[in-house]
Amino acid sequence: MQTPTDRHEYPAHWEADVVLRDGGTARIRPIAADDADRLVSFYEQVSAESKYYRFFAPYPRLSAKDVHRFTHHDFVDRVGLAATVGGEFIATVRYDRIAADGRPASAPADEAEVAFLVQDAHQGRGVASALLEHVAAVARERGIRRFAAEVLPANTKMIKVFTDAGYQQKRSFEDGVVRLEFDLEPTDRSLAVQRAREQRAEARSVARLLAPGSVAVVGAGRTPGGVGRSILENLRDAGFTGRLYAVNGALQEKELAGVPAHRSVRDIGEPVDLAVIAVPAERVPEAVAECGEHGVQGLVVVSAGYAESGPEGRERQRELVRQARTYGMRLIGPNAFGVINTSPRTRLNASLAPEMPRTGRIGLFAQSGAIGIALLSRLHRRGGGVTGVTGVSTFVSSGNRADVSGNDVLQYWYDDPDTDVALMYLESIGNPRKFTRLARRTAAAKPLVVVQGARHGGAAPQGHAVRATRLPHATVSALLRQAGVIRVDTITELVDAGLLLARQPLPAGPRVAILGNSESLGLLTYDACLAQGLQPLPPRDLTTGASAEDFRAALAHALADDACDAVVVTAIPAVGERSAADAALAEALRSASAAAPAKPVLVVHVELGGLAEALSAAVSTAPAGAPAPVGTPPDDTASAAPGPAPQAAPVLPGAADGAGTESAEADSRLIPAYPAAERAVRALAEAVKYGQWRQEAADPGRVPEYEDIDEKGAAEQIGRLLVDGEGSTTAEAGQTEPGAPVPGTAVPATEPGPAEGALTLGPDDTCALLARYGIDVRRALPAPTPGEAVAAAERLGYPVALKTTAPHLRHRADLGGVRLDLADEEQLRRAYAELTSLFGEPEELRPVVQAMAPRGVDTVVRAVIDPAAGAVLSFGLAGAASELLGDTAHRLIPVTDRDAASLVRSIRTAPLLFGWRGSAPADVAALEHLLLRLSRLVDDHPEVVSVALEPVVVAPRGLSVLGASVRLAPPPARDDLGPRTLPVY
């Protein structure tokens, strides 16, 4: 569509969809020569005051020369971007590179003047802020490091855009004009501002979908039972508090199922906030166009026939997203089950669930409709010997996740006062970097429990277009746990953990008291605690004759014990007793628990359906004295599951005190009941680990500053190497195989390495680059002949090591390809002869000579840029045993000092570093500094896509890096670190 201009082709990679402050979307793209008519039309809709602020004088219309200048750019020194909705401009920004004297210039001048113009109807939506993020990224790409802007003092909105952006800036006032100058290098504050704006905008976009004031169901048929008709009736029966409309082009009636009916969305005489589209896929584009033209804010598309059906459907799905975003709408789906909001203010059941879930404090997100049904059913049902009654706050089934994803819902839940616990079923993660960041922030405020499907299938479901990760599931799971995510393996575990976290406070530690009326059940619980890494106290047997009062007294005693952090109560039924005894026992347990609200209590029961239901007999979650919502059935209020006790309630940023928590006057808490000891203890163990993570997250550590790091020199060297294409794919510093997989983390050696087509540096460049970050590599000199081996040894100094670097022998000391402690020429020549006689000619073996390093523990340190997960630092001990067992630990980069310490200690073979069986302890402090320096290198320079240090010999004092390889590639797309943008799948 666009045409090339003066110097550069149209930069399509600058195009992006963004979410604005009010939750609507806009498209940002470069302005090109064929935009003249759009620019003129846009300018005509700008007020005279805004034009005056832009040009500092009355400027009623653009001349032909102006239009040409503002639409013809070289995309280097002159760049213009436009924000569009419906294909029409709503705002523009441009920069012009200038010299120190303010005249137009070309590179290497690194300053540019920038100016904005926003249509009055779209001011206040955050359009200028989004444009500033994108034009700043474009400018940095083109070598511009600083912006200058001249603004009239009365133009306070524009001044605020610049000052609130978070960049370091200077302000001056001259000739009646405010001049602002600011560096474009991102700062901690600018990044924080950007992410705060992203959170507010994306949360608002989801809120518009979950709390609409009006809903239209497009495709609601006359005959009951169809998808559209079912959703319409579910909305009606749930008591939706807003306006509801039925839409069907074949309808002649003015009413359908008691709801006003129309033949088109255009015929509805009032605004429509949300449209649920349930028509065949081939008719969806027409329905979307009608909604967009009517100003609908969001869509839920339940229609199937998209990416899940094959390549043709995938292209249809991409076009659906493009069309919706053109009109500024966000969409859930296609192929979605629907959305639910149980808030009495909304009561939205825009889903295929025939029954509205009870109001509660658990948020649910499921990419699968079938799993969503199972989750709603499990949380909704009474008794059954499992969990009793629990309600939800909101439910989203994203279907093919073409637009709104789990990341967006996390943004909404983060400060949603109605949600205390988030449960997610994911089959794919479209942007793992962003998910990890959002999960870490959300988990610091409220628990996030995730189960991931398709873990071992090697591919995402058909409807989910995502980037492939080269990390195995175990590694991804470990990285998510570091972000505070409670990772479970099954839907049952998801619900079990969610119920405990929603009903009980977090345990302060792993010490567990066990009491009950069955010695055998107590012992099973004790064993389960040990298996989960908890610290159980000896079980207390109350005998089968224990009364409800005995249970109450024992539980009160256990909760008062400072040596106990949580209590598991085990119970079996007394012969012949039924509901009365169950109710008495439940009341006794609730009474004792309420007296010590800081510690969690769980119940393991055997065939006690009555007890499970009695334990779940809820009190109202509303503050004392608050009236029940109008139209809420008494049973809904009586069975609503309250949130955590005040001690466990998350502190929500920006929320009022007590928001989202159970009233302190509610003197009874729901106690989760489980039919098996293993399930109860597994849920408790997850809560213990999460509680520990919360404590550690309060002090995450810091990324140290090293005065000897030469970041600028490294950047210049990397840039020069990428431009010149220097390096080698065979020679390395030391003897590390380029692109070798990380033990336990990477793909098989037959698959592409971390960055296919990357440049592998030669030994000199590798050593020089690492040295700039304080990482010294012991050189290994080639020894193609015995004489050259002797010369290399004399250059390095005896004693030396002789090693083969052939790929099939590398790092395989067990095969005999290494000779150590060669003290003189005679020993070296003898070793050389032995190696060549055993393994072949020198041309095949590629022998090298290296100075001996102090004895120590051989380790492996690697860093890799995974296309989906981002930068990952890995550590493990060297050797076949560690590789075979997958004993490797991982951390996301950048790594803090606390991360480095935990990384070293988290492998199973870590005791070998700390003096195992009387050996000398290794210099772990030096190892941690090495990890931190490597993390800094990869974090500072995204062009560094792979680093392998193997082996790293950690001695009692100091360490030696004996082999290293580095691979470079042009900077990858860092979609979570650049300007805000919606993903394109």
Structure notes:
The protein starts with 15 loop residues before the first strand and ends in a 17-residue tail after the last strand. It has 28 helices and 39 strands. The chain is flat and about 105 Å long. Mean pLDDT is 85; it is low at 1-6, 382-388, 618-668, 727-732 and 735-755. The strands form six sheets. An eight-stranded mixed β-sheet has the order 1-2-3-4-5-6-8-7, sandwiched between helices. Strands 11-12-10-9-13-14-15 form a seven-stranded mixed β-sheet, sandwiched between helices. The protein is an alpha/beta fold and 985 residues long.
Which short descriptors sum up this protein?
985 residues, alpha/beta, 8-stranded mixed β-sheet, 7-stranded mixed β-sheet, 39 strands, flat, disordered N terminus
Counted by DSSP, the helix tally is 28
Largest sheet: 8 strands, mixed
Number of strand segments = 39
- Could you say which structural class the secondary elements and strand pairing correspond to? alpha/beta
How far the N terminus sits from the C terminus, by CA atoms, comes to 21 Å
Give the SSE layout.
Blueprint: E1 16-19, E2 25-30, H1 36-44, H2 48-55, H3 64-71, E3 78-85, E4 88-98, E5 111-118, H4 127-141, E6 146-151, H5 156-163, E7 169-174, E8 177-183, H6 188-210, E9 214-218, H7 227-237, E10 243-247, E11 255-256, E12 259-262, E13 274-277, H8 284-294, E14 298-301, H9 311-326, E15 330-332, E16 338-341, E17 348-351, E18 359-366, H10 369-380, E19 392-397, H11 406-414, E20 421-426, H12 432-443, E21 448-452, H13 473-482, E22 486-488, H14 491-503, E23 511-516, H15 519-531, E24 535-536, E25 540-541, H16 548-560, E26 566-571, H17 579-595, E27 601-605, H18 609-615, H19 634-639, E28 673-674, H20 677-697, H21 711-724, E29 759-760, H22 763-771, E30 780-782, H23 786-796, E31 800-804, E32 818-822, H24 825-839, H25 842-845, E33 847-851, E34 857-866, E35 870-877, H26 880-885, E36 888-892, H27 897-905, H28 924-940, E37 944-954, E38 959-961, E39 964-968
Parallel strand pairs: 5-6, 9-10, 9-13, 10-12, 13-14, 14-15, 18-19, 18-20, 20-21, 21-22, 23-24, 23-25, 23-26, 26-27, 27-28
Antiparallel strand pairs: 1-2, 2-3, 3-4, 4-5, 6-8, 7-8, 11-12, 16-17, 16-19, 29-39, 30-33, 31-32, 31-33, 34-35, 34-37, 35-36, 37-38, 37-39
Helix pairs in contact: 6-11, 8-9, 11-12, 14-20, 15-20, 16-17, 17-18, 23-24, 27-28
